Amino acid sequence: MSASADPSLRLRYRDPVRARQLSAALVELVGEALVATRSERLAVMHVCGSHEQAIAKFGLRSLVPDTLDVIMGPGCPVCVTDMPEIDEAVALADHGITVATYGDMYRVRGSGRSLADAHAEGAPVEVVYSVSNAVELARASVGEVVFFACGFETTAVTTAAALLAGVPENFSVLSAHKYVLPAMDVVAQLPDSRIAAFLAAGHAATITGSAIFESLAQRYNMPVVVAGFEPLDVLAALVKAVEAIRDSDARVFNLYPRCVTYAGNLPAQECLWQVFECQDGDWRGIASVPSGNIRLRSEWRAYDARHRFASVRPKAVAPAEPDACICGTIMIGRANPVDCALFKAGCTPQDPIGACMVSSEGTCRIWHEYGGIPVLQAAR
Amino acid sequence: MCLGVPGLVVAVDGNVATVDFWGVCKQVLLDVVDMPVSPGDYVLNHVGFAIRRIPPEDARATLELYAQILHDEPQDLMAQDIRGEVAAMRAR
Predict the structure, then answer these.
(1) Which CATH code of 2.60.130.10, 2.30.30.140, 3.20.20.70, 3.10.450.50 fits the domain covering B5-91?
(2) Does A158 contact chain B (CB < 8 Å)?
(3) Number of folded domains that form chain A
(4) Does the interface predicted TM-score (ipTM) exceed 0.85?
Protein backbone atom coordinates (compact mmCIF):
# COMPACT_ATOMS: atom_id res chain seq x y z
CA MET A 1 0.00 0.00 0.00
CA SER A 2 1.35 3.42 -0.88
CA ALA A 3 2.22 5.93 1.81
CA SER A 4 -0.64 8.09 0.61
CA ALA A 5 -3.17 5.57 1.96
CA ASP A 6 -2.22 6.68 5.47
CA PRO A 7 -5.18 8.78 6.66
CA SER A 8 -2.94 11.16 8.58
CA LEU A 9 -1.25 12.08 5.31
CA ARG A 10 -4.45 12.19 3.34
CA LEU A 11 -6.15 14.65 5.60
CA ARG A 12 -3.55 17.28 4.92
CA TYR A 13 -5.59 20.31 4.10
CA ARG A 14 -4.49 23.85 3.85
CA ASP A 15 -6.96 24.59 6.65
CA PRO A 16 -8.24 21.51 8.56
CA VAL A 17 -10.77 23.57 10.52
CA ARG A 18 -12.33 24.78 7.28
CA ALA A 19 -12.37 21.21 5.94
CA ARG A 20 -14.30 20.06 9.01
CA GLN A 21 -16.73 22.98 8.65
CA LEU A 22 -17.39 22.12 5.02
CA SER A 23 -17.83 18.46 5.89
CA ALA A 24 -20.36 19.36 8.61
CA ALA A 25 -22.18 21.69 6.23
CA LEU A 26 -22.45 18.86 3.72
CA VAL A 27 -24.06 16.53 6.23
CA GLU A 28 -26.76 19.08 6.92
CA LEU A 29 -27.25 20.18 3.30
CA VAL A 30 -27.41 16.65 1.90
CA GLY A 31 -30.14 15.84 4.44
CA GLU A 32 -32.13 18.90 3.40
CA ALA A 33 -31.56 18.27 -0.32
CA LEU A 34 -32.80 14.68 0.01
CA VAL A 35 -36.02 15.95 1.59
CA ALA A 36 -36.41 18.74 -0.96
CA THR A 37 -35.89 16.41 -3.92
CA ARG A 38 -37.69 13.44 -2.33
CA SER A 39 -34.70 11.25 -3.13
CA GLU A 40 -32.88 8.55 -1.25
CA ARG A 41 -29.49 9.41 -2.70
CA LEU A 42 -27.86 12.32 -4.51
CA ALA A 43 -25.26 12.12 -7.24
CA VAL A 44 -22.84 14.88 -8.22
CA MET A 45 -20.62 14.24 -11.22
CA HIS A 46 -17.25 15.80 -11.91
CA VAL A 47 -15.48 15.51 -15.24
CA CYS A 48 -11.81 15.90 -14.47
CA GLY A 49 -9.02 13.46 -13.65
CA SER A 50 -7.30 16.08 -11.53
CA HIS A 51 -10.50 16.44 -9.46
CA GLU A 52 -10.59 12.67 -8.98
CA GLN A 53 -6.94 12.69 -7.90
CA ALA A 54 -7.74 15.29 -5.23
CA ILE A 55 -10.91 13.45 -4.14
CA ALA A 56 -9.21 10.06 -3.89
CA LYS A 57 -5.84 11.19 -2.58
CA PHE A 58 -7.26 13.34 0.20
CA GLY A 59 -10.06 10.93 1.07
CA LEU A 60 -12.81 13.44 0.39
CA ARG A 61 -15.45 10.74 -0.06
CA SER A 62 -14.91 9.87 3.60
CA LEU A 63 -15.94 13.44 4.48
CA VAL A 64 -19.27 13.42 2.67
CA PRO A 65 -22.45 11.63 3.78
CA ASP A 66 -22.99 8.08 2.48
CA THR A 67 -26.07 9.31 0.64
CA LEU A 68 -24.01 11.63 -1.58
CA ASP A 69 -22.32 9.88 -4.50
CA VAL A 70 -19.40 11.82 -5.92
CA ILE A 71 -18.94 10.32 -9.36
CA MET A 72 -16.28 10.79 -12.01
CA GLY A 73 -17.63 11.13 -15.54
CA PRO A 74 -15.78 11.42 -18.85
CA GLY A 75 -12.93 13.49 -17.44
CA CYS A 76 -9.93 11.68 -18.82
CA PRO A 77 -9.14 12.82 -22.37
CA VAL A 78 -6.75 9.95 -23.02
CA CYS A 79 -9.35 7.41 -21.83
CA VAL A 80 -12.07 8.73 -24.16
CA THR A 81 -9.81 8.78 -27.21
CA ASP A 82 -11.43 6.33 -29.57
CA MET A 83 -9.58 3.18 -30.57
CA PRO A 84 -9.58 4.07 -34.29
CA GLU A 85 -7.84 7.37 -33.44
CA ILE A 86 -5.04 5.45 -31.73
CA ASP A 87 -4.99 3.05 -34.69
CA GLU A 88 -4.36 6.04 -36.97
CA ALA A 89 -1.31 7.03 -34.93
CA VAL A 90 -0.02 3.45 -34.81
CA ALA A 91 -0.44 3.10 -38.59
CA LEU A 92 1.67 6.25 -39.14
CA ALA A 93 4.41 4.98 -36.83
CA ASP A 94 4.33 1.56 -38.51
CA HIS A 95 4.80 3.40 -41.79
CA GLY A 96 8.07 4.87 -40.48
CA ILE A 97 6.72 8.34 -39.70
CA THR A 98 7.84 9.66 -36.33
CA VAL A 99 4.88 10.00 -33.98
CA ALA A 100 5.32 12.19 -30.89
CA THR A 101 2.73 12.04 -28.13
CA TYR A 102 2.14 12.56 -24.42
CA GLY A 103 3.26 9.79 -22.05
CA ASP A 104 -0.29 8.84 -21.02
CA MET A 105 -1.34 8.23 -24.60
CA TYR A 106 1.77 6.22 -25.45
CA ARG A 107 0.60 3.13 -23.56
CA VAL A 108 -3.11 3.06 -24.46
CA ARG A 109 -4.05 0.33 -26.92
CA GLY A 110 -6.16 0.98 -29.96
CA SER A 111 -8.13 -1.87 -31.45
CA GLY A 112 -4.87 -3.77 -31.66
CA ARG A 113 -1.68 -2.22 -30.39
CA SER A 114 -0.51 0.87 -28.55
CA LEU A 115 2.17 3.27 -29.73
CA ALA A 116 4.38 1.69 -27.06
CA ASP A 117 3.85 -1.72 -28.72
CA ALA A 118 4.73 -0.26 -32.13
CA HIS A 119 7.79 1.43 -30.59
CA ALA A 120 8.94 -1.86 -29.08
CA GLU A 121 8.74 -3.36 -32.56
CA GLY A 122 11.02 -0.64 -33.93
CA ALA A 123 8.55 2.05 -35.07
CA PRO A 124 9.68 5.66 -34.48
CA VAL A 125 7.69 6.93 -31.49
CA GLU A 126 8.71 9.72 -29.12
CA VAL A 127 7.18 10.65 -25.78
CA VAL A 128 6.96 14.42 -25.28
CA TYR A 129 5.78 16.66 -22.46
CA SER A 130 4.51 19.47 -24.67
CA VAL A 131 3.71 20.42 -28.24
CA SER A 132 6.85 22.58 -28.15
CA ASN A 133 8.94 19.43 -27.58
CA ALA A 134 7.35 17.88 -30.67
CA VAL A 135 8.02 20.99 -32.77
CA GLU A 136 11.68 20.99 -31.63
CA LEU A 137 11.88 17.33 -32.58
CA ALA A 138 10.68 18.22 -36.09
CA ARG A 139 13.18 21.08 -36.34
CA ALA A 140 16.01 18.72 -35.46
CA SER A 141 14.81 16.04 -37.84
CA VAL A 142 14.85 15.64 -41.62
CA GLY A 143 11.91 13.24 -41.61
CA GLU A 144 8.26 13.92 -40.93
CA VAL A 145 7.09 14.34 -37.33
CA VAL A 146 3.42 13.91 -36.43
CA PHE A 147 2.23 15.23 -33.08
CA PHE A 148 -0.55 12.93 -31.88
CA ALA A 149 -2.33 15.60 -29.84
CA CYS A 150 -4.68 14.69 -27.01
CA GLY A 151 -6.27 16.53 -24.11
CA PHE A 152 -9.26 18.76 -23.49
CA GLU A 153 -9.52 22.40 -24.53
CA THR A 154 -6.87 23.54 -22.02
CA THR A 155 -4.31 21.43 -23.86
CA ALA A 156 -5.75 22.02 -27.35
CA VAL A 157 -5.07 25.74 -26.89
CA THR A 158 -1.34 25.01 -26.67
CA THR A 159 -1.38 22.91 -29.86
CA ALA A 160 -3.16 25.80 -31.61
CA ALA A 161 -0.66 28.35 -30.25
CA ALA A 162 2.26 26.28 -31.54
CA LEU A 163 0.77 26.14 -35.04
CA LEU A 164 0.03 29.87 -35.02
CA ALA A 165 3.59 30.62 -33.87
CA GLY A 166 4.95 28.75 -36.88
CA VAL A 167 6.11 25.17 -37.29
CA PRO A 168 8.53 23.55 -39.73
CA GLU A 169 7.18 22.01 -42.92
CA ASN A 170 7.85 18.47 -41.70
CA PHE A 171 5.52 18.92 -38.70
CA SER A 172 1.85 18.00 -38.65
CA VAL A 173 -0.86 17.33 -36.08
CA LEU A 174 -3.05 14.27 -35.65
CA SER A 175 -5.68 15.75 -33.38
CA ALA A 176 -7.48 13.64 -30.79
CA HIS A 177 -8.31 16.72 -28.73
CA LYS A 178 -11.72 16.56 -27.07
CA TYR A 179 -14.22 19.21 -26.03
CA VAL A 180 -15.60 18.36 -22.61
CA LEU A 181 -18.85 20.37 -22.63
CA PRO A 182 -20.76 18.25 -25.19
CA ALA A 183 -19.77 15.08 -23.33
CA MET A 184 -21.37 16.48 -20.17
CA ASP A 185 -24.47 17.01 -22.27
CA VAL A 186 -24.45 13.42 -23.53
CA VAL A 187 -24.03 12.01 -20.03
CA ALA A 188 -26.74 14.30 -18.59
CA GLN A 189 -29.30 13.09 -21.12
CA LEU A 190 -28.66 9.37 -20.67
CA PRO A 191 -31.87 7.58 -19.70
CA ASP A 192 -32.29 7.28 -15.94
CA SER A 193 -29.49 9.74 -15.28
CA ARG A 194 -29.06 10.19 -11.53
CA ILE A 195 -26.85 13.25 -11.87
CA ALA A 196 -28.26 16.16 -9.88
CA ALA A 197 -25.35 18.57 -10.40
CA PHE A 198 -22.04 18.84 -12.22
CA LEU A 199 -18.69 20.06 -11.00
CA ALA A 200 -16.99 21.62 -14.03
CA ALA A 201 -13.25 21.33 -14.52
CA GLY A 202 -11.52 24.51 -13.38
CA HIS A 203 -8.70 24.64 -15.89
CA ALA A 204 -10.83 23.90 -18.93
CA ALA A 205 -13.10 26.70 -17.67
CA THR A 206 -10.06 28.97 -17.28
CA ILE A 207 -9.96 28.91 -21.07
CA THR A 208 -13.65 28.73 -21.97
CA GLY A 209 -15.12 30.76 -19.09
CA SER A 210 -17.98 29.75 -16.80
CA ALA A 211 -20.63 31.14 -19.17
CA ILE A 212 -20.43 28.14 -21.53
CA PHE A 213 -22.11 25.95 -18.89
CA GLU A 214 -25.25 28.09 -18.69
CA SER A 215 -27.08 26.32 -21.50
CA LEU A 216 -26.31 22.95 -19.91
CA ALA A 217 -27.62 24.14 -16.54
CA GLN A 218 -30.80 25.48 -18.13
CA ARG A 219 -31.43 22.51 -20.40
CA TYR A 220 -31.22 19.92 -17.64
CA ASN A 221 -32.37 22.18 -14.81
CA MET A 222 -29.16 21.28 -13.07
CA PRO A 223 -26.63 23.40 -11.16
CA VAL A 224 -23.08 23.49 -12.51
CA VAL A 225 -20.28 24.48 -10.14
CA VAL A 226 -16.87 25.41 -11.52
CA ALA A 227 -14.34 23.94 -9.11
CA GLY A 228 -10.63 24.25 -8.35
CA PHE A 229 -8.30 21.36 -7.65
CA GLU A 230 -7.23 21.56 -4.06
CA PRO A 231 -9.11 19.48 -1.49
CA LEU A 232 -10.81 22.51 0.01
CA ASP A 233 -11.79 23.77 -3.46
CA VAL A 234 -13.52 20.47 -4.22
CA LEU A 235 -15.28 20.31 -0.83
CA ALA A 236 -16.48 23.91 -1.17
CA ALA A 237 -17.77 23.14 -4.66
CA LEU A 238 -19.66 20.09 -3.36
CA VAL A 239 -21.25 22.22 -0.63
CA LYS A 240 -22.37 24.74 -3.27
CA ALA A 241 -23.67 22.00 -5.56
CA VAL A 242 -25.76 20.35 -2.83
CA GLU A 243 -27.07 23.70 -1.61
CA ALA A 244 -28.16 24.52 -5.17
CA ILE A 245 -29.80 21.08 -5.56
CA ARG A 246 -31.72 21.73 -2.33
CA ASP A 247 -32.87 25.10 -3.62
CA SER A 248 -33.59 23.91 -7.21
CA ASP A 249 -31.22 26.66 -8.24
CA ALA A 250 -30.06 25.56 -11.68
CA ARG A 251 -27.45 28.21 -12.28
CA VAL A 252 -23.71 28.20 -12.93
CA PHE A 253 -21.60 29.01 -9.88
CA ASN A 254 -17.95 29.91 -10.22
CA LEU A 255 -16.11 28.71 -7.14
CA TYR A 256 -12.70 29.04 -8.75
CA PRO A 257 -12.62 32.79 -9.40
CA ARG A 258 -8.85 32.99 -8.91
CA CYS A 259 -8.49 31.30 -12.30
CA VAL A 260 -11.91 31.38 -13.98
CA THR A 261 -13.88 34.36 -15.26
CA TYR A 262 -17.34 34.53 -16.80
CA ALA A 263 -16.04 34.99 -20.34
CA GLY A 264 -12.82 33.03 -19.93
CA ASN A 265 -9.46 33.63 -21.56
CA LEU A 266 -10.44 35.41 -24.78
CA PRO A 267 -7.03 35.44 -26.52
CA ALA A 268 -6.75 31.70 -25.83
CA GLN A 269 -10.24 31.06 -27.23
CA GLU A 270 -9.41 33.08 -30.32
CA CYS A 271 -6.25 31.08 -30.80
CA LEU A 272 -8.11 27.77 -30.25
CA TRP A 273 -10.93 28.42 -32.71
CA GLN A 274 -8.70 30.03 -35.30
CA VAL A 275 -6.97 26.67 -35.72
CA PHE A 276 -9.57 24.16 -34.58
CA GLU A 277 -13.28 23.50 -34.91
CA CYS A 278 -15.64 21.07 -33.22
CA GLN A 279 -16.80 18.01 -35.11
CA ASP A 280 -19.07 15.13 -34.17
CA GLY A 281 -17.19 12.01 -33.24
CA ASP A 282 -17.12 8.82 -31.28
CA TRP A 283 -15.67 8.81 -27.79
CA ARG A 284 -14.41 5.55 -26.41
CA GLY A 285 -17.00 4.06 -24.09
CA ILE A 286 -19.56 6.81 -24.74
CA ALA A 287 -20.38 6.44 -28.44
CA SER A 288 -21.11 9.51 -30.52
CA VAL A 289 -20.59 12.94 -28.95
CA PRO A 290 -21.97 15.77 -31.09
CA SER A 291 -19.26 18.44 -31.48
CA GLY A 292 -17.07 16.48 -29.08
CA ASN A 293 -13.94 16.24 -31.23
CA ILE A 294 -11.59 19.20 -31.70
CA ARG A 295 -10.22 18.93 -35.24
CA LEU A 296 -8.07 21.17 -37.45
CA ARG A 297 -10.02 23.61 -39.61
CA SER A 298 -9.72 23.20 -43.36
CA GLU A 299 -7.48 26.31 -43.51
CA TRP A 300 -4.91 24.30 -41.53
CA ARG A 301 -5.24 21.25 -43.72
CA ALA A 302 -1.57 21.50 -44.80
CA TYR A 303 -0.61 20.71 -41.20
CA ASP A 304 -3.29 18.08 -40.67
CA ALA A 305 -1.70 14.63 -40.58
CA ARG A 306 -5.04 13.11 -41.65
CA HIS A 307 -4.77 15.07 -44.87
CA ARG A 308 -1.00 14.90 -45.37
CA PHE A 309 -0.89 11.13 -44.89
CA ALA A 310 -4.34 10.34 -46.24
CA SER A 311 -2.96 7.21 -47.89
CA VAL A 312 -1.61 5.80 -44.61
CA ARG A 313 -4.75 4.43 -43.01
CA PRO A 314 -5.16 1.70 -40.44
CA LYS A 315 -7.04 -1.42 -41.46
CA ALA A 316 -10.68 -0.95 -40.59
CA VAL A 317 -11.33 -3.06 -37.53
CA ALA A 318 -14.50 -3.04 -35.51
CA PRO A 319 -13.22 -1.67 -32.20
CA ALA A 320 -13.98 -4.00 -29.34
CA GLU A 321 -13.03 -3.50 -25.73
CA PRO A 322 -11.25 -6.41 -24.06
CA ASP A 323 -13.63 -8.99 -22.57
CA ALA A 324 -14.95 -8.05 -19.12
CA CYS A 325 -13.47 -4.51 -19.28
CA ILE A 326 -16.10 -1.99 -18.11
CA CYS A 327 -14.15 1.23 -18.78
CA GLY A 328 -17.04 2.54 -20.90
CA THR A 329 -19.53 2.14 -18.05
CA ILE A 330 -17.06 3.70 -15.62
CA MET A 331 -16.48 6.69 -17.92
CA ILE A 332 -20.17 7.57 -17.98
CA GLY A 333 -20.30 7.25 -14.21
CA ARG A 334 -22.50 4.15 -14.12
CA ALA A 335 -19.94 1.94 -12.42
CA ASN A 336 -16.97 2.28 -10.11
CA PRO A 337 -13.59 0.66 -10.69
CA VAL A 338 -14.27 -1.76 -7.82
CA ASP A 339 -17.30 -3.04 -9.77
CA CYS A 340 -14.95 -4.38 -12.47
CA ALA A 341 -13.85 -8.00 -12.21
CA LEU A 342 -10.50 -7.06 -13.72
CA PHE A 343 -9.69 -4.20 -11.31
CA LYS A 344 -6.42 -5.12 -9.57
CA ALA A 345 -7.04 -8.69 -10.79
CA GLY A 346 -5.41 -8.74 -14.19
CA CYS A 347 -5.73 -5.02 -14.87
CA THR A 348 -3.03 -3.02 -13.09
CA PRO A 349 -1.00 0.13 -13.89
CA GLN A 350 1.96 -2.13 -14.77
CA ASP A 351 -0.13 -4.26 -17.11
CA PRO A 352 -3.30 -2.30 -17.93
CA ILE A 353 -6.18 -3.82 -19.87
CA GLY A 354 -8.56 -0.85 -20.08
CA ALA A 355 -7.78 2.77 -20.94
CA CYS A 356 -8.91 3.98 -17.49
CA MET A 357 -6.01 2.08 -15.88
CA VAL A 358 -3.36 3.70 -18.09
CA SER A 359 -3.66 7.45 -17.76
CA SER A 360 -2.91 9.25 -14.49
CA GLU A 361 -6.33 10.84 -15.04
CA GLY A 362 -8.15 7.54 -15.49
CA THR A 363 -10.59 6.60 -12.73
CA CYS A 364 -9.16 3.08 -12.35
CA ARG A 365 -5.54 4.27 -12.27
CA ILE A 366 -6.41 6.82 -9.59
CA TRP A 367 -8.41 4.38 -7.48
CA HIS A 368 -5.62 1.84 -7.81
CA GLU A 369 -3.16 4.43 -6.52
CA TYR A 370 -5.24 5.67 -3.62
CA GLY A 371 -7.14 2.61 -2.51
CA GLY A 372 -10.67 3.37 -3.65
CA ILE A 373 -13.73 3.63 -1.47
CA PRO A 374 -13.18 0.89 1.12
CA VAL A 375 -9.93 2.37 2.39
CA LEU A 376 -11.39 5.84 2.36
CA GLN A 377 -14.38 4.72 4.40
CA ALA A 378 -12.12 3.02 6.89
CA ALA A 379 -10.35 6.33 7.36
CA ARG A 380 -13.51 8.10 8.38
CA MET B 1 -3.10 16.53 -17.99
CA CYS B 2 -5.11 19.54 -16.94
CA LEU B 3 -3.40 19.95 -13.60
CA GLY B 4 -1.48 23.18 -14.18
CA VAL B 5 1.32 24.36 -11.94
CA PRO B 6 1.80 27.92 -10.67
CA GLY B 7 5.19 29.63 -10.81
CA LEU B 8 6.79 33.00 -10.08
CA VAL B 9 7.75 35.13 -13.08
CA VAL B 10 11.33 36.38 -12.72
CA ALA B 11 11.85 37.84 -16.20
CA VAL B 12 9.92 38.50 -19.39
CA ASP B 13 11.42 38.69 -22.86
CA GLY B 14 8.82 39.09 -25.61
CA ASN B 15 6.49 36.09 -25.47
CA VAL B 16 8.82 34.06 -23.24
CA ALA B 17 8.85 34.33 -19.45
CA THR B 18 11.44 32.92 -17.11
CA VAL B 19 9.46 31.31 -14.34
CA ASP B 20 10.73 29.95 -11.03
CA PHE B 21 9.36 26.60 -9.81
CA TRP B 22 10.72 25.79 -6.37
CA GLY B 23 14.09 27.31 -7.25
CA VAL B 24 14.30 25.85 -10.75
CA CYS B 25 13.96 28.39 -13.55
CA LYS B 26 12.14 27.39 -16.72
CA GLN B 27 10.97 29.09 -19.89
CA VAL B 28 7.23 29.51 -20.27
CA LEU B 29 5.44 30.74 -23.40
CA LEU B 30 3.09 33.68 -22.97
CA ASP B 31 1.22 33.27 -26.29
CA VAL B 32 -2.20 32.61 -24.78
CA VAL B 33 -2.14 34.39 -21.42
CA ASP B 34 -4.88 37.02 -21.24
CA MET B 35 -3.28 39.64 -19.01
CA PRO B 36 0.03 41.51 -19.01
CA VAL B 37 2.68 39.52 -17.15
CA SER B 38 5.64 41.12 -15.36
CA PRO B 39 8.39 39.93 -13.02
CA GLY B 40 6.91 39.30 -9.58
CA ASP B 41 3.60 37.98 -10.97
CA TYR B 42 2.49 34.40 -10.53
CA VAL B 43 1.18 32.50 -13.56
CA LEU B 44 -0.64 29.17 -13.90
CA ASN B 45 1.12 26.96 -16.45
CA HIS B 46 0.04 23.99 -18.50
CA VAL B 47 2.26 21.95 -20.86
CA GLY B 48 4.73 24.80 -21.28
CA PHE B 49 2.29 27.69 -21.65
CA ALA B 50 1.10 30.26 -19.12
CA ILE B 51 -2.71 30.24 -19.23
CA ARG B 52 -3.57 32.73 -16.49
CA ARG B 53 -2.06 35.29 -14.13
CA ILE B 54 -3.14 34.33 -10.62
CA PRO B 55 -3.23 36.07 -7.23
CA PRO B 56 0.09 35.62 -5.35
CA GLU B 57 -1.46 34.38 -2.09
CA ASP B 58 -3.32 31.55 -3.85
CA ALA B 59 -0.30 30.63 -5.93
CA ARG B 60 1.95 30.46 -2.88
CA ALA B 61 -0.49 28.20 -1.03
CA THR B 62 -0.78 25.84 -4.01
CA LEU B 63 3.01 25.77 -4.41
CA GLU B 64 3.36 24.91 -0.73
CA LEU B 65 0.90 22.01 -1.01
CA TYR B 66 2.59 20.67 -4.14
CA ALA B 67 6.06 21.06 -2.59
CA GLN B 68 4.89 18.96 0.35
CA ILE B 69 3.55 16.24 -1.97
CA LEU B 70 6.75 16.27 -4.05
CA HIS B 71 8.87 16.00 -0.90
CA ASP B 72 6.83 13.48 1.10
CA GLU B 73 5.56 11.24 -1.68
CA PRO B 74 7.79 11.59 -4.75
CA GLN B 75 6.29 8.50 -6.41
CA ASP B 76 2.71 9.64 -5.86
CA LEU B 77 0.48 9.96 -8.95
CA MET B 78 -0.13 13.67 -8.34
CA ALA B 79 3.61 14.22 -7.78
CA GLN B 80 4.29 12.59 -11.15
CA ASP B 81 1.78 14.89 -12.85
CA ILE B 82 3.32 17.96 -11.16
CA ARG B 83 6.80 16.88 -12.30
CA GLY B 84 5.41 16.31 -15.82
CA GLU B 85 4.10 19.87 -15.96
CA VAL B 86 7.50 21.25 -14.87
CA ALA B 87 9.30 18.97 -17.33
CA ALA B 88 7.12 20.36 -20.15
CA MET B 89 8.90 23.70 -19.89
CA ARG B 90 12.27 24.32 -21.47
CA ALA B 91 15.23 24.74 -19.18
CA ARG B 92 16.52 28.25 -19.10
Answers:
(1) 2.30.30.140
(2) yes
(3) 1
(4) yes
